[in-house]
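Please fill in the sequence for the structure shown.

STRUCTURE ENCODING:
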């Protein structure tokens, strides 16, 4: 019948379009067996790389003045609550500063502790003008401490060639700035080795 011929022609054309890689003889064989398996050739999807969100560059941070403390906020009394919080943080970190607590244990904890809010004094320095500066650490960078003094003056004190003392509940600890040239985040992961004598 005419309809069956049309159907056969349509099926042949359809199979040729659907399976372009298949030869005509193979298509003819499929039709005679009345078994047709249509194959699907899918295109490979290219994976889109996720863009990493980038933070500000050092130059952009300087331009935006992200780390600058405004002059009206440079007041010692304003940061005393921060110091009280820091004292509680150290007491919790050292499980309470008791008289029988081993000094080296407290020293080890302080080496990795966050010092923002601590009151420090420059006890030794190769530059005499730094000796005696006392105040609350407001910012710690890799090479410097920013300290607010009782006179409401913001001092930038380099770590290099300076020794800082830190007192809490009768326990006095010394920070040798030359061995402390790290960012606060890097210090928490660093392993410090005990050394016999340290010089400026």
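FILLED IN BY: designer on duty
SEQUENCE:
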């Amino acid at each position: 019948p005419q309809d069956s011929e049309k159907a056969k022609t349509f099926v042949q054309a359809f199979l040729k379009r659907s399976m372009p890689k298949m030869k005509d003889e193979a298509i003819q064989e499929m039709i005679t067996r009345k078994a047709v398996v249509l194959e699907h050739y899918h295109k490979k999807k290219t994976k889109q790389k996720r863009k990493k969100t980038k933070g500000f560059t050092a130059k952009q941070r300087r331009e935006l003045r992200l780390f600058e403390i405004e002059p009206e906020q440079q007041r010692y009394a304003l940061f005393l609550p921060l110091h009280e919080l820091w004292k509680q943080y150290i007491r919790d970190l050292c499980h309470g500063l008791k008289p029988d607590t081993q000094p080296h244990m407290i020293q080890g904890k302080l080496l990795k502790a966050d010092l923002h809010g601590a009151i420090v004094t420059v006890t030794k320095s190769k530059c005499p003008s730094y000796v005696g500066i006392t105040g609350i650490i407001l910012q710690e960078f890799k090479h410097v401490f920013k300290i607010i003094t009782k006179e409401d003056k913001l001092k930038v004190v380099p770590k290099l060639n300076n020794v800082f003392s830190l007192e809490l509940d009768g326990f006095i600890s010394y920070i040798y700035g030359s061995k402390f040239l790290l960012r606060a985040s890097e210090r928490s992961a660093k392993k410090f080795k005990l050394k016999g004598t340290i010089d400026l």
